[in-house]
Amino acid sequence: MHIAKLGDRVRVQCTRVLASPRTTASPVKVVEFIVGSPGIMRGLSLGVVGMTQGDQKRLKLQPTDAYGSVQNRLIREIPRENFPSGLSLRVGKRLTAKLRSTGRRRVVRVVQLKPDSVIVDGNHPLAGKVVTLAIQLISVDASANANQSSSQVDAGGES
After folding, report:
1. Nearest C-alpha neighbor of 10 from the set 56, 58, 49
2. What span, in angstroms and rounded, lies between the C-alpha atoms of 111 and 19?
3. Single pTM value for the model
């Protein structure tokens, strides 16, 4: 069997291990990527190095190796008048914001409601947090053309 190394294309079954048994379980995802490539969490990408097909392990990822640290520039206070009048706002609600500077869209989360403004956060919900993953290596492809296609995530039917 081949041992996963940098540059190999791997397919991994991945589940986030939750800190509290009372919280809802994270769905199982199948992720395919090139080991060491930038399109995937660094801790997951490097965490498969040395594994062979069928191996399982838990990875405890610090924020820098998972979703990054919280970026204060992604937390904004927006006047309520900028939101459609019929929009029901609540803490935790996800919205799609269009950035004025670039025109790109970004998912933000409502974190606080004030009488005249709304504070939204564009960071990933797990930014700044330690993330534990249970992974199983499904396959390793070390062939010369293994790294020719892009990474893929199968979220189990969820978007």
Report:
1. 49
2. 22
3. 0.73
